[in-house]
Structure formats: C-alpha cells, structure tokens
Amino acid sequence: MRLAYYPGCTLASKAKAFDQTARWVAQKLDIELVELPEWQCCGGLVPQVTDAVMGLLAPIRILADAQTISDKLMTLCSFCYNTLKRANLVIQQDAERRQKVVDFLRETRAPKVFDENFQYDGSVSVVHLLEVLRDDIGFDNVRQKVVRPLTGVRVAPYYGCLLLRPPKEIGLDDPEEPTVMEQLLEALGCEVVDFPRKVECCGSFMIVNRPEIAAQCSATILKSASQIGAQLLVTTCPLCQFNLDWQQMRMLESNGEITPVPVLYFTQLMALAMGAEPFVLGFEHHLVDPRPAVMELGL
Amino acid sequence: MTTVRLSSRRLSSEILSEIEELSGQNLYACYQCGKCSAGCPLGFAADLLPHQIMRLLQLGMTKEVFASQAPWLCVACMTCATRCPKGVDVAKVMEAIRTIQLREGRGALQVFLPPAELVAEVPQLATVSAFRKLSL
Q1: What ipTM was estimated for this complex?
Q2: Distance set, CA A44 to CA A32, A80, B16, B109 (Å)
C-alpha cells in the first residue's frame, strides 16, 4: 500500500530514531511511504477557538500537498497527528473557515504564486501508523515478520493525550481503555503490563514554560511504571518520550525512587523484534540508555 | 412582605457570551460534579481547579477567572473534555479564556531561560506548542 508521509519537524531532528525505525518497519511490511516533497511544521497544536483561522493554514497546506500523492496521509508524532486530524475536521465542518483558508492558500501557496485551481475540501484522511497496522496490515501479519520475539519482556504501553483525545474528533481507540498498542506488543511477543497511568498527561509543553511542574507529572507516571515492574515504556509521542526520558534521568541520578524504565518508540521495539541492525534502532539517542536493559533481556 | 425578583440578567455579559462563542460550549451545562478537576493532571499546581473556573464563569465572576493562573497551566490534554458527563469541553473554555486575554495583550508567554542542558535536548515541538498556546 502507498501512503503520503508527513514526518514533522521533531522526527527530522530530535526524534530521528522514531522516523528511521518507522521507515524500516514500513518497508518490511510493504507499506510504501511517500514523504511530502516540501513540508513545514504543522504548528504543534491546533487552535481550539471557533474563530481561529491562522493556525489552520500550516496543517491544511500539508494536507493539500498530500492529496496529490494519496488520499491517506500517515504521520507518527502524536502532536502532528492530532493537529492535522482536527484541522481537517474544521475544514470539513465549517464552510466559512474552509473558504478563508482555501482563499489564502490559493494566493500564497509556494512554489506557485497564484494557483486558481487550488482546492481543498478535507478529503484526505489522516492516519497514524498504529491504525494502519491494526486496520490495513493486521497484527497477524506483523507477528509473522517477528524474528526475535520479545518473550517475557515486561512492556508498559503509554499513550499520553493527543493520540486519543478528544475522542469525538480523534476516534483512534477507546480514550480510557485503549488496546491498539497492547495488541501490537502481544504480536511482538512482549508481556504487556496493565499500566494504570497509560492515558495520563506527561506535562506536555509545560516543560519549556514551567519545567518543575511538567517534571512532577512525568515523575508520577515513572514511579507507577517502576512500581508495577515494567522493564520498558513504549510511546508514540516525541514529547512524551522526552519528558519521561529527561525526568527519569534526573530521578535516577538523584534518588533511588525508581528503577530504570527506558522509554522507546513503538517502532523501535517493532524494528528490534523484526531483526533490525543496531544502527537502525537509534538507541544511542536516548538519555536513559535502553541498551543495558535490552542486553540484559537477551535481545 | 418583600418581593425578591430572581433574574439571571446580571449574569449575562458580553465577555461571557464571547467565552461561549469562542469555546463553542454552554457554560451553564456544568453541574459541578468535579470530574474534570479529579482528572486534571495540572490541577495540583493551579490556584483554581477546572470546575471552580466553570462555577466562577456561571456566576459572572470573570475578574477572578482572568486573575487565575489555571488557564495558563492547562496544556489541553483534554482529559476533562473526555470525561465530562455533560459533554462540556473545559479545555476549549480554558483556551477561550487565554485567547481573550492574549487578544487584549495580557498574559502572554513569559519567555524564561530554562537550564542550558534542557534547551539543548527538548524537542522543538514543545517550544512551538508553548508559543501556540501561550502567545498570539
């Protein structure tokens, strides 16, 4: 299958391991990812007030560019996924704002100065790789590609906020009891830990504004994961990954409150189970190095 | 005998209508069950909890709401919006409160200098999102 692919700014830099393992996994599963030729940041978060237009321009420009490649745009970062999907809904549901956005993009869209044929009506659907694996590829097919089953590895799935909420607009899975990552982890052979804090917020972007407050949110999640004996945490969001990684490093340095629970992207764990070489996995980018844990687990 | 005339007229104001319009939410749908506050991950750090913000708005006490730090701590995790039994999206109400203040030039993001090692590592989406939510 062929999908338009939007990596987003963080996957092109701070979260390269997420991008490169996802591309590797996609290739193994015969998913052709066509990266948008010229893309820019999606804006991070979609404006939620009913009269906002400016914040829609970046995500809609991305979606309009995707329509020449495929009617499905795949993305990985939870922030990008949430922003693109919700901006798209506004375009589908609000005719007045759709007109404003389309008029603006028609006149300013690079590389053409004025493109009178430009149209976008919200017809591209925004999909997450987890959805593609569940709904199009199937976890049985994932299981068949596993060459290094992660048997007995206790993994806690961590969903965070933006992959699931608001459920009426996102609808990827149940907002309180999601199972998509659990199904994937089982296909990889892991022992899935029932993680009570799997849909809690890590503190999000408050890390740049009030870091001490975000740190407390992350600490609560980390203590819980450590207490229930998780050996790895798995996430879909570069900011969740960072917040949990950063705070964990500080907790491990300063006190004995937790045992190490390295935080991986789900694609890193997939690539590991599907036999990727170490250089693909990008474990060296982590603050809390997953390699000792991975080696100890005999992987 | 004294006649007490009950009226909600005092409670309707331009600013409340603006909050309702910007958020797309009915402020009076809230019946103060506190579910939003129970699940709010930033509630521990805020001067007012989400249900208290809702109650103050219902009573027309916008001055107190605009003085609160709570909307500036809200990261739009949308736990409240997901769990509200009345379907009120409190995260959108918080965003409307921020937006009104930002458009009046109040309450913009205070840019501070985080530790250098944090700046070096933090994903740029955090900075982009902080500016999106906390500045115009």
Answers
A1: 0.93
A2: 26, 6, 28, 16
